[in-house]
Amino acid sequence: MSKRTFAVGDIQGCLDPLKRLLDHVKFDPSKDQLWCVGDLVNRGPDSLGALTFLYDMRKSLKVVLGNHDLHLLAMASGHSPKKDKDLTKIIESENSEKLLKWLSKRPLFYRDKERKLAMCHAGIPPMWDVKKAEALSDEVEAVLQSPKADKFYKHMYGNEPHIWEDSLSGMERIRCIVNYFTRMRFIGPHGELDLNEKGNVIKQDNDLQPWFHYQIANKKYQLLFGHWAALGGVFDHPNVTGLDTGCVWGGPMTLMHIESGQRYLCALDDKKVTHV
C-alpha cells in the first residue's frame, strides 16, 4: 500500500471516534501520515487518553497548536485563569512532563511546499502570505522553546492588539500572532480581529466577514484549518478546507483523505463511520 495522508478536525479529547475513524481507513502509522489541525485536548471525555494516543504515534503526525492546547500549556505553567478538570488530569499524570514537552514543540503553522498544502488551527489573515505565516509561526515557536515561554503564558490571555502591525514587539506581538493563528474567525476589512463573534457566516454584515472571504495571498496553497465548528465544515471557498465539525458539541469528527478529498465522519457516541 502506498503512503497516504489524512487530516483530522479538532479532537478535543474525543479519543473513541478518532480511533474508529483510523481503524475504518486501516491507518498504518508505519506508512501513513495524520495531520491534526489543533485543539487535541479539552472539553471532551478523555484528553489524557487522546494526547497519549497521539504522542505514541508522533512519528506519523503533523500537528499544529490550537487555542485549547495553548491553554493546557498555560495551565501547566500556572498562568491560566481557568482550571479545567480534564486538563488537570494531564498535568497530574505520570507522563505529563514528556507529553507537555512534546506538545510545546509543535508549531502554529505547517506547510508542505512540494504538495502546496498548509495547515493551521484558525486560519491566516489576508495580510499574510504562507511565507510570512511560516516566519511568524517560527517566532512564536522560538519563544515557546526559550526561557521567555513562562512570560508569554502569563500574558497570553487577551484580545489586544486586535489588528496586526509589523511594528508590534514583545509579548504584544507574540499574543497577536497567536490570536490570529488560533482564535480568529471574523475580521474587519483591514484585518481587525473580532474575537467575540462565534456564529456562522450568514449572520455577518459587510464590515465583518469570515477571514477566508477576503482576498488572501496563498492562492497557490490549499489551507487546512479547524476551530470553527459552527461552519460544519461546509462553505464555499476554493483554497481553504475546514475540518472542525464539532465532535465535542454532538457533531461528528471529520477525517479527510487528502489525496482524494474523501471525508469520513464519526460521532462521539456512534460506532458507525459514514462517508461524504
UniProtKB/TrEMBL annotation:
Residues 5-155 form the Calcineurin-like phosphoesterase domain. CDD domains: MPP_ApaH. It comes from the Bacteria. Its EC number is 3.6.1.41. It is an enzyme of class 3 (hydrolase). Transmembrane segments: none annotated. GO terms for molecular function: bis(5'-nucleosyl)-tetraphosphatase (symmetrical) activity. It catalyses: P(1),P(4)-bis(5'-adenosyl) tetraphosphate + H2O = 2 ADP + 2 H(+). Keywords: Hydrolase. Hydrolyzes diadenosine 5',5'''-P1,P4-tetraphosphate to yield ADP. Belongs to the Ap4A hydrolase family. PANTHER family: CYTOCHROME C5, PTHR40942. NCBIfam families: apaH, PRK00166.1. This is bis(5'-nucleosyl)-tetraphosphatase (symmetrical).
